[in-house]
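Sharing a chain and its predicted structure for anyone who wants a worked example. Both blocks are below, sequence first, tokens second.
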Amino acid sequence: MSADDDSGLNERHRKRMQRKKAVIDSTMRAAQHDAGLLIVATGNGKGKSSSGFGMVARALGHGMKVGVVQFIKGAIPTGEEQFFRRFPDEVEFHIAGEGYTWETQDRSRDMHKAEAGWAHARRMLADPRLGLVLLDELAIVLKYRYLDVHQVLADLRARPPMQHVVITGRAAPAEIVLAGDTVTEMTLVKHAYALGIRAQKGIEW
């Protein structure tokens, strides 16, 4: 590419970024108030819990206190549990599961664990000292109707106005998606598991 061609490309890029900046600046000017957000990460792709725990780390970086209830999981200690339990003054962490549903195969026991987990969650959702509450894998619990989605929504609506809540898990019910302020669906493109590579520490758990 000649110097003239490169110069023309740079100028077109500059003008395109100018137009983009004007649009973004206008959007940012229109968004001027703060509120506690309900964030939902769902879908079949990998990264839902990873996203949730990334927001936990981000909140801690800003000096916020965080509550975590991890539903479904619990058969083995996850990397996130082992890490965030190092900060007991900043993170309240509860496990509310005994393993994936296809492993436990006990609906009544899974429901009991979910109800116990929601008791912790409800207390957290009433605590204005917690800036962020992560309800990891709650979507699966609601999918299998281990908890009443309408009661869950009522507790979410009653939380402190500036408290953020993150819900993760596949197959989030329509009621949760509708209530969410920011909803992301993780789409599976491909996964190493299909190549015969098993779940590994630091990646899946």
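Comments welcome. The beta strands are 38-43, 65-71, 91-96, 130-136, 164-168, 182-186.
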